[in-house]
Structures
1.
Amino acid sequence: VQLQASGGGLVQAGDSLRLSCAASGRTFRSRVMGWFRQAAGKEREFVAAISGSGGLTNHADSMKGRFIISRDNAKNTVDLQMSSLKPEDTAVYYCAAGKISGSVRLTSKEYEYWGQGTQVTVSS
């Protein structure tokens, strides 16, 4: 599985941004997909995950209500809609593909494939 994240950029606090991750491979729709982020000098942080069917999602508590993960299995994409962005949301955002039929509560170490990351910068 190859993953290509896009959609990052420089925005102002309060703005919205939509990240997209394009995936290759026939197993995409069977895999849990996740978004993670890593701010400079900090550890990688879970953002959200979605089951293969899209029927189950899991969002980090600090982002619930602001970030929404979704997927389109016909297009092999998984998106992260971010709203009410804050300067502390500044980070490199990564999409990742987890195990086939994996849980939306996988740890980052259980994700098998990672994209290259897209930078999101939120100015105050």
2.
Amino acid sequence: VQLQASGGGLVQEGGSLRLSCAASGRTFSTYAVAWFRQAPGKEREFVAHIRQSSSATYYADSVKGRFTISRDSSKNAVYLQMSSLKPEDTATYYCALGRPIYSAYAVSSMYNYWGQGTQVTVSS
């Protein structure tokens, strides 16, 4: 499985962006998908997760109510709609595929495949 993340860019505080993650392979629908982010000098952190059937989504507290994760298995794609962006959202965003155990969706080591990252910069 290969992943290609896109949609990053420079946006003003309060603005919106939509990130996309396109996956190759016919097994995409069997994987859960997550977005992580990493700011300079900081550790990679969990942002959002969506299960295989899209039946459940989870968010980091810092983005809850502002970000929405969704997936379109017919297009092998996952999206992260980001609204009300803040300067602290500035980071490189990565999509990841895996089959984490139920409670470990925020653990990066649970994910087998990673995209190359897309940069999001929010100016104040």
3.
Amino acid sequence: QVELVESGGGSVQTGGSLRLSCVASDYGYRRNFVSWFRQLPGKEREGLAAIYFGNGKTYYMDPAKGRFTITEDKERKTVYLQMNNLKPEDTAMYYCAADVKDGMWNVARMVRFWGKGTQVTVSP
């Protein structure tokens, strides 16, 4: 079992930045991917970005491309999501996810471990 704890959410204005952190309970989180998802009210969780520990490669879905960056601090067992140029449509609960099946890092039902989430609110 891997425990994931997110932090770093908050309220910002349009154009602002936030850095989300996901701290893992042990190095077991480095099994394959760690992903960041978000969930808007009434919507399904959508994958945003992931890092693959086999080769350090990062992956992004369209809402995150060019504005979000995923990185890892191995010693701190922490994965970050730097979010820049935030927009009101980025308002959501953001979740960290670890250990996905079949490499499908952006599909919520393929994730084995979830954090409890951190809220991001972007005002106009």
4.
Amino acid sequence: VQLQASGGGLVQAGGSLRLSCAASGRTGSSYVMGWFRQAPGKEREFVAGIDKRSGNSRHADSVKDRFFISRDDNKRTVYLQMNSLKPEDTARYYCALDMSGRYVSRGQSDYEYWGQGTLVTVSS
């Protein structure tokens, strides 16, 4: 399984970006895809995740009502629409895949595959 993330860039505070993560290889029919982020000097944290089979999603409190995760099953692609961006959203964003597909976990250790990350920089 390979994950290819894209869509990062430089944006002013209050702006929007959409990240994409395309999965390839043998993902199976039920899996969970998530987004995590890591800011300089901080630990990686959960941002959002979505269950491919049920469509159930969850978002971290820090991004709720600003970020929205969605999926396109035909393309095996997950999107993260980021609105009302703040300087504290600056981080490298990683997509990840959990093959078990049991539930949308916030735990990094539940995700077996990771993309290379895409950098999001929000200027004030």
